[in-house]
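Journal club side-thread
Mid-discussion, someone asked how the predicted structure for our own chain would compare to the paper's figures. Pasting it here so we can look after the session.
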Amino acid sequence: MAGIQRQGPEVSLENPTLVEGFPGVGLVGKIATDHLVTELDMEYYASLDCEGLPRVVTYRGGEGRARPPVRIYASEDHDLLALQSDAPIASDAVDSVTNCVSKWIAEREARPIYLSGLPAEREERPSLYGIATGDAAGTLADHDIEAPPDDGVVSGPTGALLNRAAQDGDDGLGLIVESSPQFPDPEAASVLLEDGVAPIADVSINVGELVDRAEEIREKREQFARQMQEMSQEESSQAQPLRMYQ
């Protein structure tokens, strides 16, 4: 049956936060979620089996385990869930994936944090902004996360998930960080984690290794980034100034 299929042991979570890591501009959501899963030693919990997802498996160098490309990890100790994706989501699969994920989030009564990059050329530390649906705006204020200074739109699967939350009146948070429009951006991903995910989810995340290994991570992710660039901008999760759509 299509949906989210539990493949790991059941976990006991009180009021879990779910961090979404679909790939998009700068691969910031993917890099951040990959690091979160590793840093907090999260356990493989479930996989997405939604219409339109690529029928492939992924594996890690030095490991023999094959796994579906979109997975959910869990940590009881941190009351945390993370959605990790090793494959871009095509436009014709966005609705199906949104239905799968949104329904599961509602059933779990989880608080979702959606991650997106805002293409920007910069010389200083990337700026982080936040948007909210439902009654979640107070969470951003509590953690001094400012709203974006300009009008904009979030596209791709991340935008579709936020759209569903907004349409249904569900609480949801969107974290938007200035990101490289051309290359994987570990620095921007570290800002998402350090200034956004960590305080909101009340977890401690060491981003030192992520920053120190930025060049290595960038090189490893460039092939994936090129695959993403072959898809249209509308199919990639990112934030864009609203004037592009006017």
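Post-session note: The two ends are 41 Å apart (CA to CA).
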